[in-house]
């Protein structure tokens, strides 16, 4: 049998936390043959609720679950973890300035970076979910210099999955037959959901989404805004933000990263830019990636038209601004 892997979930008493911990314990994230030990972190005001989640995890008697730690101590939480899913953060409250929210999250991610750097397993894979996800991941990277930059990522898989879902609904095909959409850039409303290389498998053949949808007007406008604003639409409907889909996407992200993407399929991940596609190095930017043996690599050589170029640059510009705002909070 495999030795258990330790998985940290921060913000584990929150909405996404409650949805993701049973998924992890059922093998959705690391596979049905991989035992896990869960490390759940939250802050003092949520300690009692966190303990309630721990009680339920015990009561669920998951066969793969070999231990549960519930703690408000960041050092204990990070000790020896192989995977870190960073969901905890400071939410934007009504009337708050962007800078104030940024400042709170910068200090959280700075502190948690140091704890991970000192106490996590050397090859720990980190996924930042909490918003502003790209910039929180960048801060984490900056303050954990001994963690390889390839190991620090942020979640845009939810946006990717939303794009697959919209195409699937529009064409009335199973979502599993749609692939290779791309989310470029920031996990925010400036993200660019790109279908120029996406395909649908019909009667055993892969066809371009552009050919099957045949309504460029819809693809270039409504499709894009629907994906960009899906988070807000969920809040409006549910009065709470996406949680089950976010938890599912976080599991998809780690699973594909660790176990590999299927041949001929790529996914979107927020990763440290190496300058691919003319995106400034030093940003955490969402790219199309394939994964093999625990490593991701950016898909190269995709043709970028003028429409895409402008949208890819606009979201990069927003990330540059977020980065300088984050740095101004450090001083
Ligand atoms: P939530 O408010 O229900 O839960 C957040 C939890 O984090 C709370 O239990 C809170 O006590 C905890 N927390 C706050 N500061 C912490 C700290 N320093 N250390 C550990 N825990 C801390 O929020 P929800 O709905 O679970 O969302 C979590 C985050 O994920 C939010 O920032 C949200 O904006 C983001 N999000 C990102 C998505 C993405 O696709 N990247 C999708 C959906 C949400």
UniProtKB/TrEMBL annotation:
The keyword Coiled coil does not apply. It is an enzyme of class 1 (oxidoreductase). GO terms for biological process: malate metabolic process; tricarboxylic acid cycle. Keywords: NAD, Oxidoreductase, Tricarboxylic acid cycle. One of its GO terms (molecular function) is L-malate dehydrogenase (NAD+) activity. It catalyses: (S)-malate + NAD(+) = oxaloacetate + NADH + H(+). It comes from the Eukaryota. This is Malate dehydrogenase. It comes from Jatropha curcas (Barbados nut). The lineage of its organism: Eukaryota, Viridiplantae, Streptophyta, Embryophyta, Tracheophyta.
């Amino acid at each position: 049998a495999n030795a258990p892997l330790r998985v940290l979930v921060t913000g584990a008493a929150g909405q996404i936390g409650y949805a993701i911990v049973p998924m992890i314990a059922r093998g959705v994230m690391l596979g049905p043959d991989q035992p896990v030990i869960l490390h759940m972190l939250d802050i003092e005001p949520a300690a009692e609720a966190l303990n309630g989640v721990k009680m339920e995890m015990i009561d669920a008697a998951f066969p793969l679950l070999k231990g549960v730690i519930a703690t408000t101590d960041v050092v204990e939480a990070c000790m020896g973890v192989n995977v870190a899913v960073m969901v905890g953060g400071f939410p934007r409250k009504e009337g708050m300035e962007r800078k104030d929210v940024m400042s709170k999250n910068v200090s959280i991610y700075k502190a948690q970076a140091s704890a991970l750097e000192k106490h996590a397993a050397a090859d720990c894979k980190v996924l930042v979910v909490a918003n502003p996800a790209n910039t929180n991941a960048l801060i984490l990277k900056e303050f954990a210099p001994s963690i390889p930059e390839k190991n620090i990522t942020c979640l845009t898989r939810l946006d990717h999955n939303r794009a697959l879902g919209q195409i699937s609904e529009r064409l009335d095909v199973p979502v599993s037959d749609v692939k290779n959409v791309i989310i470029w850039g920031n996990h925010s409303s400036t993200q660019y959901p790109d279908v120029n290389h996406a395909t649908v498998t019909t009667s055993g053949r892969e066809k371009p989404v552009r050919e099957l949808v045949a309504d460029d007007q819809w693809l270039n406008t409504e499709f894009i805004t629907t994906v960009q604003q899906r988070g807000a639409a969920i809040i409006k409907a549910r009065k709470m933000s996406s949680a089950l889909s976010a938890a599912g996407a976080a599991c998809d992200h780690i699973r594909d990263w660790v176990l590999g993407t299927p041949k001929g399929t790529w996914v979107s991940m927020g990763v440290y830019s190496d300058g691919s596609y003319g995106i400034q190095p030093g940003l955490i930017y969402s790219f199309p990636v394939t994964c093999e043996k625990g490593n991701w690599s950016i898909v190269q050589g995709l043709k970028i038209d003028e429409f895409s170029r402008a949208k890819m640059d606009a979201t990069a510009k927003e990330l540059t601004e977020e980065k300088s705002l984050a740095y101004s909070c450090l001083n």
